[in-house]
Amino acid sequence: MKHTILRGAGAALAVTLAAIWAFPVYWMVNSSFLTPATISKLTPTWVPFGGNLSNYRAVLQDNAFLSALGMSLVVTAICLVLCLIYALLASFAIGRFRFKGRKSFVLAIIVVQMLPAEAMFIAQYKMLASANLLNSVIGVSVIYLAMVVPFTTWMLRGFVAGIPVDLEEAAMIDGCTRMGAFRRVTFPLLAPGLVASGVFAFLQVWNEFALASIILTESQKATLPLWLRDFAQSSNLGVTEWGEVMAGSVLVAIPVIVFFMIVQGRMAQGLVGGAVKG
Amino acid sequence: MTTTMTAPASSPARVEQPPRRRRRRSRLPYILLIPAVGTLLIGLGYPVTWQILNSFKEYGLKQQFGQPAEFVGFDNYIALFTDAVFWQIALRSVVFMAATAAVTMVIGIAFALLMKVVPTWSRIVLQVAMLLAWAMPIVAQMTVANWLIDDRNGVVNYVLSLLPGVDYIGHDWLRDPLSFFGVALVIITWASVPFVAFSVYAGLTQVSEEVLEAGQLDGASQFQMLRLIIMPIIRPVLVILILLQLIWDLRVFAQIQLLQDFGAGGERYDLLGTYIYGLGIGQGQFGAAAAAAMVVMILTLAVSWGYVRRLLKEDEES
Questions:
Q1: Nearest CA in chain A to B195
Q2: Has residue A142 got a pLDDT over 90?
Q3: Mean pLDDT calculated for residue range B183-189
């Protein structure tokens, strides 16, 4: 009897906490449907009945949004493709071979992941400035690649190590070249790893704000996170159009939430690593 | 980066391990590494080398306009370390980091324990809610937070004002520095609790029923079970989580910068990240900014060293 009551109380607590944790996300979606007249009332509107899509229409017709979307897509695509190729090659090297300098490379890719943007962005800014690459796709991609390649390599290494060498060797005995064995045997087995690490790289590049805010200062070159910041501020002078700003937030967040759900299972696993197994 | 970081790794007497997999001394692994190493050298190696050099040079506005930057030894560091403002901001950053990490850990562990004891359906509701918070991009987080605490129409002020005798309508949460950092702490905690809760929960599911039953038979109370059986088993996870939280809560440039953009700016609202930004990009004092960035870099490496060692060990075991 006592047990049932306790479980009930626990469930109630869990649901309450869930409501609190999800509230900001709910509020973002809720507000995005409300008209300026409703949203500026002193009493909040808790459910978007009678709301409409006009905020979304306004955002989608905003040239700055479309340009930022294009910029984000281009930068993310370039970084994703190059990052996966570079990281796959590197992970194969450290996952399959023992060679002099291997440990140094592994140490380097681990240490680099620890470094915060604020410890390097001044230097990266100066480098791009002297190469005349501020406000350019190439400039920001170079920095982003260096940011995502280490983690992707590290993650793929685990997948490469999980594929038995014997499989490849069997294929080579059957007459495959090493490249052939890799292409026909290892690569298909790596596909899930490539998808997972690709999503991680996507999330990092798509969400990146700190470096972008320093390197991409021209508004035509803004990526989506920069656009959202500017969009939320531009109206700050008079009255903020919170409905439109929230519609913008939803549009920026949705692809991220969708992709995040795909990899969430690996998220905790990858970062805490072998610690759980003890 | 790579060049500077490799030295310590290769120096301890390299024991000639017999290569486990491929004996052949091939050049292939080196060729495979070229693109990745090249990327790191350009994107990180060159800038960090520049930073190390320039932290020892006088590089201010004059040098921006063509004067050669001269080596001044440790002058930038001395100027930094004798500057009361820098110490204030550094101390504030460390306190903020420790406070945020502590609050996140406590709430995260509590959530994980709750998830363990509640019925499955309510656990899943909580997990979904946390995933939503976890997935939110930082800029969206900060924008929504700014709307929630909007002085006139924000729902936070409205709800607080419902309490008898409280009137928060028109209250600006970002004006008082302490309140400013309180807001930052709440947002960052909100976003990082899910990771901690999920990881600790994963750790808890590894604690076998038999061990707990044995503890119960021996007459342990609930609290004793938690302290003497469960905690030691999930300790390795907790250690890593604390390290990761500290590392992440030190690198909160984006959140602080965005809060400053929305609310008040200035030294009183700075942490190390925004301070370096102001020094370098804002005032053009690149030598001083490079020195300050080096301090952050060394601080981060010191905090993260335990985690780095663990990952290295994991690599050796694989």
A1: A268
A2: yes
A3: 97
